[in-house]
Amino acid sequence: MKLAVLGPGALGCLLAALFREAGADVSLVDYRPDRVARLRLRGIQVHTLEGVHQVVEVPIGLAPEVGPCDLTIVAVKAYQTETAARALPDLMSQGGAALTLQNGLGNLEAIARTVGTHRLLAGVGLLGVTRQDEGRIIYAGRGVIYIGAPAGSQVSAIEVAAVADLFRGAGLECQPREDIEAVLWEKLVINVGINPLTALLRVPNGALLKLPEAWEVAVAAAEEAQAVAQAAGLTLSGDPAARLRQVCADTAANHSSMLQDILAGRPTEIEAMNAQVATRGRALGLPTPVNELLTLLLRAAAQSAPFTVG
Ligand code: PAF
């Protein structure tokens, strides 16, 4: 099976390196020729908390040089999905599938606008991986990856199982799920609580458990998201506050992806997270004042960099 991983961010580099190490026919795909050239020279550097440093030489190229592939994994930030999707017609073989392993909601819809829904897969990864620098990542936590065929997809259960086997072959825990939309929302419920608060307050995830006011806001955002998911007809497992508490404890030292984005001066994924809850809530007649306010605050935080004092 020929594989492409689209996006040389933290997750993209990790997946490409792990698949390559497992002997898969994989290429990492970028849209920037300058970065492709640098990554080709340096390889992908993977560091673990146990002190392992490894340089993996992964084939890297632009989409027209790489395709056509049987499976293309989309691993770009949510705000780049629209642009990245334009590479998919070059990358996907006839009968090939695209798997989005991205944060937030709206990615499936953005990809479907370019290549339709019939060969789409969705996934949720709970891996602790941080980008330190271009092509340089820290692999901090081995978590599970859930994958499945979303509504409108014609990818069969047998094909989903084969993709899960591929991930397992690369040393990743991967489980097929028939309710992948609910799984996407379960992750979103966590993200809308943790990500904006940690980014605004510039604290690691575990700090939220020690800041009662911040915790109250995080739980309220998560509960609103769970209510919207339920109003949309999805069944989410467990109590949002309990899940939030668990993830904050499990990832206590982690800097959330949104905090990393704010600190690096990059755009954030707020539009794919809290803004999605607010938009979908509005369409269902459900008020989501906490998610609306957090969306505005994060947009303001991203715009305010040139005016900050100190
Ligand atoms: O976006 C993130 O940072 C992660 O999804 C999570 C689970 C909040 C851990 O930091």
Describe this structure in words.
The radius of gyration is 19 Å and the shape is globular. The strands form two sheets. The chain has an eight-stranded mixed beta sheet with strand order 5-2-1-6-7-8-11-12, with helices on both faces. Strands 4-3-10-9 form a four-stranded mixed beta sheet, covered by helices on one side. It is of the alpha/beta class. The protein contains 13 helices and twelve strands. The chain has helices spanning 10-21, 33-42, 63-66, 81-85, 88-91, 107-115, 157-169, 180-201, 212-231, 240-250, 257-264, 274-283, 289-303; strands spanning 2-6, 25-29, 44-48, 53-56, 60-61, 69-74, 92-100, 120-125, 128-133, 136-141, 144-148, 173-176. 46% of the residues lie in helices and 20% in strands. The chain folds into two domains: 2-177, 3-Layer(aba) Sandwich (Rossmann fold), CATH 3.40.50; 181-303, Orthogonal Bundle (N-(1-d-carboxylethyl)-l-norvaline Dehydrogenase, domain 2). The site of pantoate has 11 residues, from helix 8. Residues 103, 190-191, 194-195, 205, 247, 251, 254, 256-257 line the site of pantoate.
